[in-house]
Design brief:
Number of helices: 10
CATH class of the largest domain: Alpha Beta
Number of strands: 17
Structural class: alpha/beta
CATH architecture of the largest domain: 3-Layer(aba) Sandwich
Order of helices and strands: HEEHEHEHEEHEEHEHEHEEEEHEHEE
Strand order of the largest sheet: 11-10-9-12-15-17-16
Oligomer: single chain
Number of domains: 2
Distance between the termini: 36 Å
CATH topology of the largest domain: Rossmann fold
Radius of gyration: 22 Å
Helix content: 25-40%
Strand content: 25-35%
Length: about 325
Amino acid sequence: MSRDSIKTLFHPFHSGDIAAPDGGRFLFLGAEAGFALPADFAAALDCVQSLRPEYRRLEASGREPTPTLPEAAYTGALVLCGKHRGENEDRIAKALQQVPAGGLVVIAGGKEDGIQPLRKRLTQLGLSVEALPKYHGWAIWLYRPDDVAAAIAALEAKPVLVEDRFHTLPGLFSHDRPDPGSQMLAERLPTDFDGNAADFGAGWGYLSVMLAERSPRTARIDLFEADYNALEHAKRNLAEICPRLNARFFWQDIAAEPVKEKYDLIIMNPPFHEGHAAEPGLGQAFVRAAISALKGGGRLMLVANRGLPYEPLLAEGLREHTEVCRNARFKLLTGRK
């Protein structure tokens, strides 16, 4: 997400179009580091951020973020939009639930966040919104009316059931179906594995479930995921689908926080986007972390977009590696340490 969106969010306060709060407590959904509060913004701020890298940046900036919605009363709310329409709408629904009638809700995002369609949708739901363009985006705001039940029902995220067994939610990666790359990997997971495995970037648990089902003698699977909400869904999915599996769950930024265990097998479909922007270095950091976390003789299995240059890293850190297969979009790489 562009830092411009953060500046856009606070611009109406700086410009005087909205009076800065003289007290109370504001909820900040989708909070990111790097914002500057107006000098007269006197409200306390509760920053909610479920993505581990941005959560850590908020901590480093002196904030005390939380990955989940606090139990508190709020006088107003701020919403910073991201790339997922369903998640943006759900954040607004939560804001409307948490503030009282007459409470201020300020929302901001760029064109890539769908801010203009979002503004139109709020208007269609009968909410009276004002708007101000700035920094290549729009700030929109409203004062919560007395009756917002219908708007909240329309905006809040609806649970999704994938393949009649995986629980997910809009805003999670590939929330309505298994990612095609992950499916390619799942079809080629071992059937005789009996050691300790890790799933790096586990999402809502699809690959871990597939490994457990293909190799029923798996001793343990550790799931590492930077999205707190995805990890919570993975916990539910593994508990329901593989209740006897020994599984552990780590809310962790693989690219920046070291993995303490060593594994016989690591499986992954590493991310290569941060926000809207492609970031190939993110996937490369996952590969380096996986190589470091393998035991001697341990095996790495990963799926990646065909154009991503992971082979030099595998050659550098593993004693052997190969490309198992590819299709028009993906390639499956394996190696042994």
